[in-house]
Write a structure and sequence with these properties.
It is a single chain. By secondary structure, this protein is mostly helical. The chain has two domains: 31-171, Serine Threonine Protein Phosphatase 5, Tetratricopeptide repeat (Alpha Horseshoe); 187-275, no CATH class. The protein has twelve helices and no strands. It has helices spanning 2-52, 56-69, 74-89, 93-106, 113-128, 136-151, 156-185, 189-202, 209-223, 226-239, 244-255, 267-275. Helix 2 (56-69) runs antiparallel to helix 3 and helix 10 packs antiparallel against helix 11. The longest helix is centred in the N-terminal third of the chain and has 51 residues, at 2-52.
Length: 281
């Protein structure tokens, strides 16, 4: 009988010990999670303070640290988009693109996805504004801004993106005009015509179209292609009669005994019939 009581005591003691151990471990886990949460929040708050002090590089590092400490939390999501913003303010363009793409990958349906895309576009756009930058950046920026307009039409960044699109298209057209003038000045008429034609066909809503039409008149007259020159002048007169480019075209054609009018059946004639007569062929 004493032996039975001794064994029973041992079993009861073991059970109590196990329960206490589990409670202790759970308490440690809770305390650890609370400590981890507090640490992440402190680092996040410190990152926000760095932004206010314009220490954008430091801020980006701290938001990245929050993401590493607590990668699947709501705080980590906020830290990811704040990284994008911090890199943007720091003009760290490559990091903007990589961090924004990471945010989009982790949170494809989040309300800030359009903002992440917009900051990618702005990172390209800001570089385009720098003199001598590769035109590939202009193309990349256009792709991103078009995506925002098409995929997020109700976003506050849609109208902003459209403004950027208009500017970038005008920028591309200006580059085409620059090359076209270069060829024209050196009497390389066919490549000059190709550049000016590209402006008219690809960038028809830009401010460079009137000059492109006038330069076509100059190039075609130099090649003896009177029909094309007169038709380019007719389009110019119909759409941009009040511009200096029409005045110059009218005088140039007049000096050759010619006038702006539809003539022949060139690619310009088709544009004339579409624009002036509404005959979409």
């Amino acid at each position: 009988m004493p032996l039975l009581k001794s064994r029973l005591f041992i079993i009861i003691f073991s059970v109590i010990f196990m329960l206490l151990s589990n409670c202790s471990e759970n308490q440690l886990d809770v305390e650890s999670n609370i400590s981890e949460d507090s640490k992440a929040e402190e680092i996040f708050d410190s990152g926000e303070r760095d932004i206010l002090r314009k220490r954008y590089g430091n801020a980006a590092e701290k938001f990245a640290q929050v993401e590493r400490i607590y990668p699947y939390s709501e705080l980590a999501k906020r830290a990811r988009i704040m990284q994008v913003y911090s890199h943007h303010k720091n003009r760290s363009y490559e990091n903007v693109v990589s961090s924004a793409n990471r945010f989009i990958e982790f949170h494809p349906n989040d309300k800030d996805v359009s903002y992440a895309y917009y900051l990618i576009g702005i990172s390209y756009y800001d570089q385009v504004l720098a003199i001598g930058r590769d035109q590939k950046l202009t193309i990349e920026a256009l792709k991103v801004f078009k995506l925002i307009v098409e995929e997020f039409p109700n976003s506050e960044y849609s109208s902003k993106s459209q403004i950027r699109i208009n500017f970038l298209r005008d920028h591309l057209a200006s580059k085409e005009m620059e090359v076209g003038r270069y060829y024209l000045k050196r009497s390389h008429y066919p490549p000059a015509i190709n550049r000016f034609r590209g402006v008219i066909e690809k960038f028809s809503t830009t401010s460079h179209v009137p000059e492109a039409l006038h330069r076509l008149v100059e190039a075609y007259l130099s090649l003896g292609l009177v029909d094309e020159a007169q038709t380019a002048g007719a389009i110019l007169g119909y759409n941009y009669r009040s511009t200096e480019w029409y005045d110059r075209t009218f005088k140039l054609l007049g000096s050759k005994g010619l006038k702006p009018k539809l003539s022949g059946n060139s690619w310009l004639s088709k544009i004339y019939r579409q624009v002036v007569k509404g005959q979409w062929l």
